[in-house]
Design brief:
This protein has 206 residues and is of the alpha+beta class. Helix content is 26%, strand content 38%. It has four helices and ten strands. The chain is globular and about 45 Å long. It starts with a strand and ends with a strand.
Amino acid sequence: MEHRVHTASYSALKPMDNPIRCFIAISLPEELKNRLIQVQSRIKTYSGFRAGYPGKNGLHITLQFLGDVFPKALEKIISAMEKSVPRGGFYLKTSGLGVFPENQRRAIILCGICGDVSKLQGTYNALERSLLNERIIKKTENKPFTPHITIARFKSFPSPKCIDTIIKESGIDLDNYRFKVSAIHLYQSQLTPKGARYTRLHTSCF
């Protein structure tokens, strides 16, 4: 199912009382998303497992999954985003395919991220601190931030041999694709019978 992205002002949501499902992410250039869709097409040619695949507009680098939040909290979230953006953009690169966690049914196939990861980590840390200060998120156990793009989610796990083949042969277009990051985005995620619908609520530019 296709994932759609719409753009809307968060102010349109302020009168609502029901919580909305939100996350903060880095968007990807169209050329990279097209390459990722091609990789998905290659993976689908393999048998012996079942998987779900994000649509083109569901491909991004997640920084913070916020879960269900009330619209009245959006101003605090946006304030946290604005306080977190670095001065000037930075460049990232793709680093091929991987699987995480290994040998587990609910694993994902991912595209790794390298490049200026120190600035990416700094952005992530600043965003986390700001969201904690605004009491949007709670401090959890210290899990390392591992930037990636989710390409597929296994519903049944393939054989190790199949995994090795997928990693070696399907990600040939994902080595060292360089792209610039100049903003982070706040999205609302809604599940519909036609697939996930993403609404971009705010953009904080670097």
